[in-house]
Design a protein that fits this description.
Length: about 240
């Protein structure tokens, strides 16, 4: 179940067991025209969840399928735009019953201009429908953030965090019905070395998207000549 604090602005979802669902409702429109910051983590087990934004009957303008290999080292953190009201965020844990997750939803819990400052820069790259781009990062980068937009057409994409050849540590498949009103922002932790972010435009060729990706947190004390322990070992 979901409990609310402060006029429906912050919602904490208790541990959702596998094959269960939690809801964050906003019937009075407190979060209309704002943003949901959705965070989910586990106690070190895999995370497999569906996240949907409902707005009115039979209208689902945002859908996500989230997989994380280790939800403690790499918690999931994304921002969902909610223009208009009322809105309901449905979070379904589709993993096995042995793999619970803990989720929280808050409005504007990050700087509202953070993602927009990134997407207003000149570093955006157009990814045509069916194409992919990869972005490698140095071991000193502790986290990265990604913004995806379109020119108003639907947005369909898959964002992957890899560490080693075809070794997916985090995968998010996202759909939004309008890439201008509902751009997608995600922040990913990148511990260890050999981290690569891969963005795939899963839409047809008629639906390009623009992607911005930059390092968010950098360990300035880490030397490029230091030995790096890979994998998910927390040292």
């Amino acid at each position: 179940g979901a409990g609310s604090q402060g006029a429906g602005i912050t919602h904490e979802l208790a541990d959702d067991e596998g094959r269960s669902c939690g809801f964050c409702k906003d019937p009075e429109g407190h979060l209309g025209s704002l943003k949901y910051n959705y965070c989910a983590r586990t106690e070190g087990r895999p995370m497999d969840a569906n996240v949907e934004l409902w707005q009115g009957p039979d209208n689902t303008p945002v859908k996500m399928r989230v997989y994380v290999e280790n939800g403690s080292i790499r918690p999931f953190n994304a921002v969902i735009e909610t223009p208009g009201s009322p809105n309901t965020l449905a979070i379904r844990n589709v993993g096995q019953i042995e793999f619970p997750l803990t989720a929280s939803v808050a409005a504007n819990s990050i700087s509202p201009d953070y993602a927009y400052n990134l997407s207003s820069g000149p570093s955006g790259m157009i990814i045509q429908g069916g194409a992919l781009k990869t972005y490698p990062f140095e071991s000193a980068v502790d986290s990265v953030h990604v913004v995806l937009k379109t020119d108003g057409r639907p947005l369909n994409a898959r964002i992957e965090l890899l560490q080693g050849p075809n070794n997916n540590k985090q995968v998010c498949e996202v759909y939004t019905e309008d890439g201008i009103e509902r751009p997608f922002y995600i922040s990913m932790d990148t511990p260890g070395s050999g981290n690569v972010v891969r963005i795939v435009n899963t839409a047809p060729v008629e639906f390009p998207l623009t992607a911005w990706i930059e390092a968010k947190e950098i360990d300035e004390h880490k030397s490029p000549t230091d030995a790096v322990l890979g994998g998910d070992s927390a040292w």
